[in-house]
Task: structure prediction
Amino acid sequence: MNKIILVMVLLSSLLLSESLNFDNNTTCLVRHLKVYKNPQWVAKIELSNGKELFFSSPKSMFEFYHRPGQWYDLGVRSEDDFKDILVTDFDTMQPVKAKGAFYVYGSNITSPAGDDLVAFDSYKKAQEFAKKHNGKRVLGFKEVNYALINLLNGRI
Result:
């Protein structure tokens, strides 16, 4: 009986889990890189119109998130146009809600986009990673502002 319950819980969690659904042709909106080459960094924003936008890293996703008007052809005007935002947990490689994730700034691990924010689904895992990889800070979603993205991109 316990095995049946465990299997049902596992199956339901798989069915209800978020998905990134990218393939070998999926490219980053910001950097035009193929995202499948570095799956531990992939992020996605799903728009309310159903369009899915992929990013080669959390930094690239935040770059778009803070300045969606730069890509005016997509018709995004505000955060209201975002249905869902996902990042990949660097440790488990599972998609997690970006607004609930924690990001390590200043580590010695770089993404295909260079200096970046390493995403984790828990604060504890982010802290452990930061300790091991010389991370400077662990940030929540709302703490990641456009000035930090500019700093990571070498624009400051």
